[in-house]
Design brief:
Thrombin, subunit H; elongated; 3 helices; Peptidase S1 domain-containing protein; six-stranded antiparallel sheet; Peptidase_S1_PA_chymotrypsin; 299 residues; Trypsin_dom; mainly beta; serine-type endopeptidase activity; GMP Synthetase, Chain A, domain 3; six-stranded antiparallel β-barrel; 3 domains
Length: 299
């Protein structure tokens, strides 16, 4: 673990320099891959939109074999996009199912319920999800009312948007639960949450989301930095889908709880590209928004 922390620290010292390099779309820390297989060598993973043979790349545009004393591994990957969000209603409201809001032009915008939280020292219960689900970039929301699953008059309303944070280490927001709507920190098809944890490089994680349902993946990079919708993010987690899953997350899965094998929530899913999914760490979310998990269900 000390070695990972050292590599992350050195990567952060030069991440701005790496991201300023032409054609680099993001950077993170992970294990080197050879012929599609993971090795045990820790590297700075540098992601390019197009990976060309070395002899076709001008010398001044080549990615150095190491940065700040840490070896690099160049990976071809498309730019990431925010995951946008079937129509299944459940009460009490659980984690990992569709939620929706209405924009000012009456369009429906959907995402996924993450988990249920309280402000530290408080008693009110809030639904936690991705910030861009509650406050859509470049759109004005109608009234901030959250529905599960979709609006049907006022019948399916469950919460009202309270606060969002989009940028830095966090894409997350909270909506205060209506007093007459039940909730439970149970992740659909996964089970009861038992607490919070930290993502582990090489560790197995799971999620349930509105679009791709239940998926399993592996944490293949940490301390990932990138720009989304013109906003800079850092300290994100990269997830690669395990064999048998075409994607770990897709449009509509934003806000999904990222859960480890011990049923601890370790992150909130927020973005994806053609190969990977990305999540913000739950510890950064809780620290930024001053939150803690609401009551946990008994097993």
């Amino acid at each position: 673990m000390r070695e990972i922390d050292e590599v992350v620290a050195r990567s952060r010292e030069v991440e701005d320099e790496i991201l300023s390099h032409p054609h680099v779309v993001r950077v993170g820390v992970g294990y080197r891959e050879r012929a599609g297989a993971k090795t045990d060598e820790l590297v700075i993973r540098v992601y390019l939109e197009k990976k060309l043979p070395l002899d076709e790349v001008p010398e001044e545009l080549r990615i150095p074999t190491e940065w700040n004393g840490i070896p690099t591994d160049v990976i071809e990957a498309s730019p990431a996009t925010l995951t946008d969000v079937k129509d299944f209603k459940e009460r009490p409201v659980p984690c990992g199912l569709e939620i929706s809001l209405v924009t000012a032009n009456t369009a429906l915008y959907c995402g996924t319920s993450g988990c249920f939280v309280r402000k530290k020292g408080g008693t009110d219960v809030y639904l936690l999800t991705a910030a861009h689900v509650l406050k859509v970039p470049d759109h004005r929301m109608m009234d901030g009312i959250v529905y599960q699953a979709r609006p049907f008059g006022w019948i399916n309303r469950v919460a009202t948007t309270t606060a969002t944070h989009f940028g830095g280490t966090v894409d997350a927001g909270i909506a205060k639960m209506d007093s007459d709507v039940g909730h439970r920190n149970y992740v659909w098809k996964i089970g009861n949450l038992v607490g919070t944890g930290s993502p582990v490089l090489g560790g197995t994680v799971r999620k349930h989301g509105r679009t791709t349902d239940y998926t399993v993946g592996t944490v293949t990079a940490i301390s990932v930095s990138m720009t989304l919708n013109g906003t800079e993010f850092r300290s994100l987690v990269e997830i690669t889908p395990d064999p048998g899953y075409a994607k770990f997350a897709d449009e509509g899965d934003s806000g999904s709880p990222l859960v480890n094998g011990g049923n601890e929530i370790v992150g909130i899913v927020m973005a994806k590209d053609d190969d990977f999914a990305y999540a913000c760490r739950i510890d950064n979310v809780f620290q930024t928004l001053n939150l803690e998990l609401a009551d946990l269900p008994t097993q």
